[in-house]
């Protein structure tokens, strides 16, 4: 009778549950997955990039947002944040590196076509570059 009770208890407690060996394999696989996930993109990256942008660290924010948008390309908020970071970085580079600023503005408009400030600044830079080569020869005459 005691053996029957023991068998019944074992069936109830262990039947259909993985063995220790299976549990060990599962724990190892789960640890590897969590390590891979932590090294890749995290949903907190948006918040981190936002904080960096508030601190005017646009290059770092762009790097984080690029990785994030690569993993989650449908995330409209991330795309707009990346466009804004590109716009802000272009504003910084406009005086010293106009070509780099123009490339950043083009990227901002491509990521967020509704970004009016970036589109306006891109037109201004395009017009400025369009006039510069013609103005120089006219001044020499």
Description:
The structure is a single chain. This protein has 7 helices and no strands. It has helices at 2-14, 20-39, 45-54, 58-71, 76-93, 98-111, 116-140. Helix 4 (58-71) runs antiparallel to helix 5. It is rod-shaped, with a radius of gyration of 28 Å. The termini are far apart.
Concise summary:
By secondary structure, this protein is an all-alpha fold.
List keywords for this structure.
single chain; 7 helices; mainly alpha; disordered C terminus; 141 residues
Helix content: over 70%
What is the strand content? Answer: under 5%
Number of helices: 7
Give the structural class. mainly alpha
| Shape estimate | rod-shaped
Task: Write the SSE topology.
Layout: H1 2-14, H2 20-39, H3 45-54, H4 58-71, H5 76-93, H6 98-111, H7 116-140
